[in-house]
Structures are given as C-alpha cells and as structure tokens.
Specification:
Number of strands: 5
Number of helices: 17
CATH class of the largest domain: Alpha Beta
CATH superfamily of the largest domain: HUPs
Radius of gyration: 27 Å
Order of helices and strands: EHEHHEHHHHHEHEHHHHHHHH
Shape: elongated
Largest sheet: 3 strands, parallel
CATH architecture of the largest domain: 3-Layer(aba) Sandwich
Helix content: 55-70%
Bound molecules: tryptophan
Number of domains: 3
Length: 378
C-alpha cells in the first residue's frame, strides 16, 4: 500500500516553535527520508473559518505567512504538495456524506472540541460548522488516503474520530477508505511545548510565543526573560528542572552537538540538569545556552524566509500548483466514495440498462394480465 502523509495547520497566525517541534520538524524529516509516496500539507482555511467566521481577513492574510513558514522550515514543493483547503471542493462533499456516519453525542465527547468550546465561550451558541469540524478533518485525511498524519497531541481525538468514520464507511459501503495512523512527536517536551511564561500552551493571545519568523534579537529577548524555577533565587540554590520552561525547551531542541559547540564543559543535558538540581548553576548561563541552540535552529529558517519573502507571487504559484495536485487526488477518492455509496448514477450504464429492462418487463406483464383478464370475462 502507498505511504501517504496528510497534515496541516489553521492559518490564524504565523507558526511558532511549538508548531515546529510539535509537527513541522517531523514533516520535513519524513519528507527528506524519501520513504513516502505522496505528501500533502494543507493550510486549513475552511477549518479556521469555523471559529473565525467574522474574521475572513485574518485568515486571508495568514495563508501566505503559513506558506512562508512551511517553505522556510524546509518543506519542498517538488516533494510535498502544499495546498489550501478551501480550494478543494471535494472535501466539502465528503464531509457531507460522512455526517451520516457520526452521532451528535459522539461529537460532543471529543475532548479537543470540548475544550475549544469552553475557550471560545461558545457554550450556548456553538456554530454547527465548528461543532462538526472533526468530520471535515476526517474528509481532509481520507480524501488523500493518508496512512500517516504527523500532528501534535491535541489532534489525537480527531484522528481517532477519523478512524471510526473510516471503519463505519467501509463496513456499510464496502472497503473504500484508508485508516490513518497518527504520528506524535517522540519526546514529551515536543508534544506540548509551554509558552515562554510557563503557561501550558503557546498561544498568540497569551503573547508567550517564539515565532519561526522572529529575528535574532527578539528571540534572545524572549529567551532571557523566560519563566524558570521561581524558587531558584540564588545561583547556589538547588533548582527545579521539572516545569522549568528553559529546560523543557532544551529537552525539545538541544542535541549533543549543541553541547560540544556551546557548552563543552557538560557532556549532555542530563549533566546540565544534575548541576542545576544540585545548585551552583545560574539561570542566565542556561538561558544563554538555550539562546544559542534556538538561534542555530532558527537562523537557516529565517534566511530562507527572507529569500521567499522577496517573491510572494512564487509562493502563491506553489500553493496553486499544490492545490491542483491535491484536487486531482481528492476527486479520485470522491468518485470511489460515490460509487461505493451508490450515487454514481450517470457512470453506471448497467444501472440504466437494468432499470430499462425491468420497466419493459413490468409493462409486458401488465399487457399480458389485461389480455388474460378480458379473456376470463368472456
Ligand atoms: N486541526 C488542525 C489544527 O488545528 C488543522 C487540520 C485540519 C489538520 N485538517 C487537518 C491537521 C487534517 C491534520 C490533518 O491545526
């Protein structure tokens, strides 16, 4: 079976380093292994509109930002189709059919949707489109017959819901769709990178993000004012590593090579953590190291971004081409879905012939019946 990736992001802002370690870094690695037959990376504008209905300009402006982040992180249009969700009408049609396979109660149990409803104060006025976005996400994934969906942990309920829809569809209509596997980041810190203020999540509204597109000075400023261990007042005090954002970021970003280059007096992160726990290691030193690590990671991304920013028409060309490729694939799947669901009327010559024959036979029986009837009364 072909190995196919589909994943994507809502275009509601520039991407930050939480997106990067949560999924983007992985996509680029997977792309570069060459192990996948097809890779689709989607800018989920239609999904973004489900909770930004009154904000179409925000979504519109952020398409290019996300596309720039993709390209500068290393996604290569020659190997990955980058496309815009709303340009693939097949996805909407699939969603409509999948709605028959999902109950309202099942949607209400989706933990990610539940917490989003709370966060947005939707409780008593949930837009239907927002409520059903997990179904539309199942359409996104299955339209491409994706086998692998690299995403952050918050997307797990969506993939589970997709798998249920696939199983139900295949059971009712016959084997048609492919059940996808989720691919989560391989370390805990990358799974949920906290904000620079130590809050559970990086989010634009909390102002605690480091963006892929931040310049070097901004990154440094954000790192130097990061949340650490509030109990670690003097350098000599023993410090806590758990819940210490600087160390969480190091868990997500630092490698042994970074130690060799910037902090050779330590073998690795374990040794650095041990020293911090013992006491005698100041926050500033650790922050400076983290700054070096982040700059090394982000500098090539920034440089590529600066290049792509000079040629915005090219970025749109990439998205347009990618959308064409994506639509071809989705149209193929949709036609298989229509056939399986018995709504492919015009493509089914056998159906038309068989029904004609049935009507002919019925007519013949009626004629025969009337003839006999007259005969009987004689
Ligand atoms: N829900 C994802 C997000 O919040 C975006 C998305 C839409 C997605 N459709 C998808 C991700 C399909 C993976 C697969 O960023």
């Amino acid at each position: 079976m072909a190995k196919i990736i589909l994943t994507g992001d809502r275009p509601t802002g520039r991407l930050h380093i939480g997106h990067y370690v949560g999924s983007l870094r992985r996509r680029v690695q997977l792309q570069n292994t060459g192990d996948f037959d097809e890779i689709y990376i989607m800018i989920a504008d239609a999904q973004a509109l489900t909770d930004n209905m009154e904000n179409p300009e925000k979504v519109r402006e952020n398409i290019v930002e996300v596309a720039l982040d993709y390209l500068s992180a290393g996604l290569d249009p020659a190997r990955s189709s980058l496309f815009i969700q709303s340009q693939i009408p097949e996805l909407t049609e699939l969603s409509f059919y999948y709605m028959n396979l999902v109950t309202v109660a099942r949607l209400q149990r989706n933990p990610t949707v539940k917490s989003e409803i709370q966060m947005r104060n939707f409780e008593n006025s949930i837009p239907v489109g927002f409520f059903t976005y997990p179904i539309s996400q199942a359409a996104d994934i299955t339209a491409f017959k994706a086998t692998t969906v690299p995403v952050g942990e918050d997307q797990e309920p969506m993939i589970e819901q997709t798998r249920e829809i696939v199983r139900k569809f295949n059971y009712v209509y016959g084997e048609t769709l492919v059940e996808p596997e989720i691919l989560l980041p391989d370390n805990e810190a990358s799974m949920r990178l906290p904000g620079t203020d130590g809050q559970a999540k990086m989010s634009k509204s909390l102002g605690n993000c480091i963006y892929l597109s931040d310049d070097a000075a901004t990154v440094k400023k954000k790192v130097m004012s990061m949340f650490t261990d509030p109990g670690h007042l003097q350098i000599s005090d023993p410090g806590k590593v758990e819940g210490n954002t600087v160390f969480t970021y190091l868990d997500a970003f630092s490698t042994k090579a970074h130690f060799e280059e910037y902090l050779p007096e330590y073998q690795d992160l374990e040794e650095l953590k041990a020293h911090y726990r013992r006491g005698g290691l100041g926050d500033v030193k650790v922050k400076k190291f983290l700054n070096n690590v982040l700059q090394e990671t982000l500098e090539p991304i920034r440089q590529r971004r600066a290049q792509y920013e000079k040629d915005i028409p090219y970025v749109y060309e990439v998205l347009k081409k990618g959308s064409e490729t994506a639509e071809n694939k989705a149209a193929q799947t949709l036609s298989e879905v229509r056939r399986a669901m018995r709504i492919d009327y015009f493509d089914d010559e056998e159906l038309i012939r068989r029904q004609q024959q049935a009507f002919n036979e019925r007519k013949a029986r009626e004629v025969e019946g009337r003839r006999r009837g007259r005969g009987g009364r004689k």
